[in-house]
Amino acid sequence: MAVMPNQRPEWLRVRMPTGQNYEEIKQLMRGKALHTVCEEARCPNMAECWGHRTATFMILGSVCTRSCGFCAVATGRPMALDWEEPRRVAEATAQMGLRHVVVTSVNRDELRDGGATLFAATIRWIHRLVLNCTIEVLTPDFKGSHEALKLVLDAQPDIFNHNVETVPRLYKRVRPQAIYQRSLDVLASAKALRPANPVKTGFMLGLGETHEEILTLLEDLRAHQVDIVTIGQYLRPTPDHLPIERYAPPEEFREYGRIGKAMGFRHVESGPLVRSSYHAWDQFQAAGMPAATAD
Questions:
Q1: DSSP3 helix / strand / coil % (the chain, rounded to 5)
Q2: What is the pLDDT, as a whole number, of residue 268?
Q3: Structure-derived torsion over alpha carbons of residues 175, 176, 182, 183, reported in degrees to the nearest 10
Q4: Does position 17 have pLDDT exceeding 80, yes or no?
Q5: Is residue 53 a contact partner of residue 72, using CB atoms and an 8 Å limit?
Q6: pLDDT tens digits along 185-198
């Protein structure tokens, strides 16, 4: 039975970020003027991930052109592009000794390519400076631009990720500048462009979706060639964001994990604290798909 949102349940309590690794990574990010989605999105897993010396880099600045109702990232006038940022991300990846790196971004709808050029440059810099490190990109929808998507994939990331976030009925409230079918088309196009590579997406529970809508969403994702799905609990970042309709219990997440595996997904990471980049390396391994090699 779902828990009503009066008080956060025990299974969603996490420790505050502390420790030597956390402090080292925090100083590294500040020293290289880099942003992480861990901090900007107030991720509940930051203590665990930073403690294991993993992080998700957020490129293209820290101000987004969209105003999604669930997201803690600031909305407003974007900052100028930093063309040295891709190199600094690669340097930080090398310094941290990462074996799997995730690169995401804010939406930059004012740019013709949506920021795809900097995504591609970041991937190439990491390939250049860090050997034996797989690269996952979590991109915007680039407003459906096939050219922008191809630009990113031509740089040869190992996993392509684009989140659908919620069921289509809730898009107007949750993702007002996004289009559900456009997100599905981006995922299918990514698979068509690089069929040997895993395609991944994620969504949240607790925004008002129904069980039947979740099943339909999973069916849509399979029909659009998605390999990996992450399912987590929506947590309200501030009182100005969308309210939590309910807390889904751990057994419900386990049920969707079983359903997803039965549908044919290569891997389903489903749990209250799951986020797109949570255990990203483990998801990559669990999907049973080898890293891509340079052409």
A1: 40, 15, 45
A2: 95
A3: -10
A4: no
A5: no
A6: 999 999 999 999 99
How many residues comprise the chain? 295
Beta-carbon contacts of residue 60 (< 8 Å; ≥ 6 apart): 78, 81, 85, 105, 106, 108, 115, 118
Tokens of 94: 């090398």
Q: Residue written as tokens 């807390």?
A: 247
168 contact partners, CB below 8 Å, separation of at least 6:
180, 213, 217
- Residue reference for tokens 């949570």: 278
The whole model's pTM is what?
0.85
Residue written as token pair 């861990």: 38
Taken in order of first residue, the domains within the chain and their CATH numbers are: 15-286 (3.20.20.70)
Adjacent-strand bridge partners of 221: none
Give CA–CA dist 63/160, Å, rounded.
22
Instruction: Say if residues 38 and 49 touch (Cβ distance below 8 Å).
Output: yes
- Is pLDDT of 90 > 80? yes
Residue type for 219, please? E
The pLDDT, as a whole number, for residue 56 is 82
Work out the number of other CB atoms within 10 angstroms of the CB of residue 45: 19
CA pair distance 205, 129, nearest whole angstrom:
38
Host H or E run for residue 61? none
Which residue is listed with tokens 């799951």? 274
For 104-210, where are the alpha helices, taking DSSP H only? 116-129, 146-154, 171-174, 180-193
The SS3 call for residue 174 is helix
Phi, psi for residue 59 in degrees, rounded to 5: -95, 175
232-280 pLDDT tens trace: 999 998 899 999 999 999 999 999 999 999 999 999 999 998 877 666 6
Mean pLDDT across the chain? 86
| CB distance 86 to 121 below 8 Å | yes
Task: List Cβ neighbours of 224 (8 Å cut-off, separation of 6 or more).
Answer: 184, 185, 187, 188, 191
